[in-house]
Amino acid sequence: MPDSHVPDSPLPEATAAMIHPSAQIDRSAKIAADVRIGAYSVIGADVEIGAGTEIGPHVVIEGPTRIGSNNRVWQFASIGAAAQDKKFAGERSELIIGDGNVFREFCTIHRGTGEGGVTRIGNDNWIMAYVHIAHDCIVGNHTIFSNNATLAGHVEVADWVILSGFCGVHQFCKIGAHAFAAMYSAINRDVPPYVLVAGQFAEPRGINNEGLKRRGFDAERILAIKRAYKILYKSGLPLLEAREKLQLAAVGAPDIQVLVDFLGTSQRSIAR
């Protein structure tokens, strides 16, 4: 168990004033001076917490875990626990979290599995209650995971993705930038950038038109993405041929190039 926070703790005085007396802080933890830690929270060994971060009551953070600046972790979250992987045998693995993220109640975020395994979460993500992010996942920036969304191991989620409530994502799937998954979607294949999916198993239902508007995409850019979607899903072309046609359309169109690049790296095929 980590050592309880006591007056002779090596933590800076400013930090000590912002940590509830009932919290337990391992003496090896590195905590910025203005971090707030609530009642009965437990901060384990090899944990770093950056400036401006607030840890609520009854939170458990295990290491090796690196948490950046200005994050907020709400009560009862479990951050940095060992992977739920039968092959995991205690090797050194990490969880690395960026800046400005929110983790709501009962989130569970696991470290990577195997020697050197890493789970990474970027910046400015909004992770709602009961979300699970499994070992070795990579989450980008500005995502929203609604209540009970779940990532299995080795999932990659790009920037600006929205997962609605109770979505489940299969191991090793990739979800491209600006994609949207409707409530209860069961995702067992890769979801290309800009695409809206729904169903069990998830199928494409168009592009994330409203999301693109909110992020400043003008009418011309959105029209180009709609045309690309039609090539990919409505033309009847095999995937390889559709990608070749999209590559031609991507000349001078960076948004379409993002889609082409994603298709070139897909390992599980795409939602169809």
Question: What report would you give on this structure?
Answer:
This protein has 272 residues and is α/β, with parallel strands linked by helices. 18% of the residues lie in helices and 26% in strands. It has 5 helices and 27 strands. The protein has helices at residues 13-17, 209-214, 219-233, 239-249, 254-265, and strands at residues 24-25, 30-31, 36-37, 42-43, 47-49, 54-55, 60-61, 65-67, 72-73, 78-81, 94-97, 102-103, 108-110, 118-121, 126-127, 132-133, 138-139, 144-145, 150-151, 156-157, 162-163, 168-169, 174-175, 180-181, 186-187, 195-199, 202-207. The strands form 3 sheets. Strands 3-6-9-12-15-18-21-24-26-27 form a 10-stranded mixed beta sheet. Strands 1-4-7-10-13-16-19-22-25 form a 9-stranded parallel beta sheet, with no helix packed on it. A hairpin with a 2-residue loop joins β26 and β27 (202-207). It is elongated, with a radius of gyration of 21 Å.
